[in-house]
Specification:
alpha+beta, D-amino Acid Aminotransferase, Chain A, domain 1, 2 domains, 5-stranded antiparallel beta sheet, about 30% strand, binds adenosine-5'-diphosphate, binds magnesium ion, SAICAR_synth, SAICAR_synt_PurC, Phosphoribosylaminoimidazole-succinocarboxamide synthase, nucleotide-binding, purine biosynthesis
Length: about 240
């Protein structure tokens, strides 16, 4: 496998072509950003922790019957993945209220949401990722009705797997963000990452005991110490 041209430089990952047209190399960088990229830092080792947690969860999800883009971890910070045509949506599954749900919709911090809520944002930095709904998605042709139903089904199934796995490690999964895409055959697969940047985790039983990127957003403590400890708790070593 050869690292080819840079295809996409994101806020926290770089995506390269490989010698196969339908496979890409995703490199997890040490950049961390928040608030639409207004807050930015480089934290040595951060990319490695997120790559490790992602490489732990994707095979677990595949084993549970969930199609993902993941093929292999080729270095501690680089994953070989199937190239997807990404659907520009951030699919957020919420088990308990936090963040914008508390700020904008009157929920109490930590309030259980049963069944879990799915919230969708349009992934578009220039528009600040506005919340979107089924009607707008269909009207804009972002996804077909059957694709949207499949995305929601998969998002809830992934939440169930992650929630149970993390609960066994005394981590409460509050909410999470997923990105999906279509593979060469048109199948919907989970792309992107599952990491401390995309999960909202609280230490079991303590409302707001953040063990994720909120430590960076809200300056709650040493971000790298938190990422290292959580990666250790999730996948050991
Ligand atoms: N399997 C894949 N195929 C193609 N693009 C992908 C795949 N998985 C993730 N991506 C895209 O690669 C980029 C990853 O870099 P990231 O730093 O997260 O970018 P962003 O700043 O857009 O969030 C994202 O735009 C994501 O949608
Ligand atoms: Mg991203």
């Amino acid at each position: 496998m050869k690292q080819g041209d840079l295809l996409y430089l994101g806020k926290a990952k770089s995506v390269y072509r490989t010698d196969k047209p339908d496979e890409l190399l995703v490199v997890f960088r040490d950049d961390i950003t928040a608030f639409d990229g207004q807050k930015k830092n480089v934290l040595a080792g951060k990319g490695g922790y997120n790559a490790k947690v992602t490489a732990y969860f994707y095979p677990l999800l595949e084993a549970a019957g969930i199609p993902t883009h993941f093929l292999a971890a080729v270095t501690p910070t680089a994953h070989l993945v199937r190239r997807l045509s990404m659907i520009p949506l951030e699919i957020i599954v919420r088990n308990r209220a936090a963040g914008s749900l508390v700020r904008n919709y009157g929920f109490a911090e930590g309030e259980p949401l049963s069944p879990p809520l799915i919230v969708m944002d349009l992934k578009d930095d220039s528009r600040h990722d506005p919340m979107i709904n089924d009607e707008i998605i269909l009207a804009r042709g972002i996804a077909a009705a059957e694709e949207l139903a499949e995305i929601k089904r998969l998002a809830l199934a992934i939440n169930a797997v992650l929630r149970e796995n993390l609960a066994a490690k005394d981590l409460d999964l509050i909410d999470m963000k997923f990105e999906f895409g279509r593979d060469a055959a048109g199948m919907i697969r989970l792309g992107d990452e599952i990491s401390m940047d995309s999960l909202r985790l609280w230490d079991h039983g303590a409302v707001g005991a953040s063990l994720d990127k909120d430590v960076y957003r809200k300056e709650l403590g040493d971000v790298m110490e938190t990422y290292a400890m959580v990666a250790q708790r999730i996948c050991g070593a």
